[in-house]
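Quick check before the chapter quiz. The format below is the same one you will see on the exam, so make sure you can read both the input and the output lines.
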Amino acid sequence: MSNQTAVTEFLLLGFSDVRELQILHFIVFLVLYLISLLVNILIITAIALDHHLHTPMYFFLMNLFVLDLGSISVTIPKSMANSLMNTRSISYSGCVAQIFLVFFFASADFAILTLMAYDRYVAICQPLHYETVMNRRACVQMAASAWICGSLNSALHTGNTFAISFCGGNMVDQFFCEIPQLLKLACSDSYLIEVGFLIFSVCLASSCFVFIIVSYVQIFKAVLRIPSEQGRHKAFSTCLPHLFVVSLCLCTAAFAYLKPISSSSSGLNLMVAVLYSVLPPMMNPIIYSMRNKELKGALSKWIGWRLFTENKMSIFLH
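Here is the expected output.
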């Protein structure tokens, strides 16, 4: 008979047992986390304050960056705290919260990326219908649907995962609570229900990915017919980065959740988890703003205005 004991906490995988490397991990993740926070908040603020950017594309971008802020804040701070305090533990309730939030932000994030592809398709392939199709009310409803679907999907997976009894110990072979690693600790075949739901979720995400690919095929066909080289450049500069981010997210997440649990090393698990959970939230603001003149202009204007205001206040106070 399986030895079933109540699990009150889990032990996460550390990046190293060497104290100096733990401190290095803390410093590196802290710098990356602060940079990500700063860049995301700057872009969200710039979009919110510049009325020229109050368009469907930037509305969905702002939703994406808000989700990215939440996503990176779920896993990184706990990992940094564990490295700093030389511990690996996370409470049972903390693990439940991590699973729910990781799935929520990932699901909503991918839904927003799909909506962004649809927005670009309508803008480039059906420009005469754009204002009618992508009106303010429709955009708000689509974004709200993405957040609601994300929360429902997350609740389903979290409930299924923690309805399972754990008797395989409490060692999670990942730096945050991840469903495939928790399923390794299951007492019986009851975890197969959650495996089925995971496969369904990946298939659903893959269908969204196919929709995105088809949308971009149509977009690229339309772009190649644009006589203006500047117009083609603008279209490609907003579409190609989007396609890169979507591909990176889906491929790494699918690998992490569909591969046989015992088929890879802890080092590979860590690398894949960083690729799908840490890298996209950090890279999204850079990718989307790097070749976007409107967004860079709004950022420059807002940062310049802030510096001007601070200098003016400093002169007044002196």
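If your answer matched, good. The chain has a mean pLDDT of 82.
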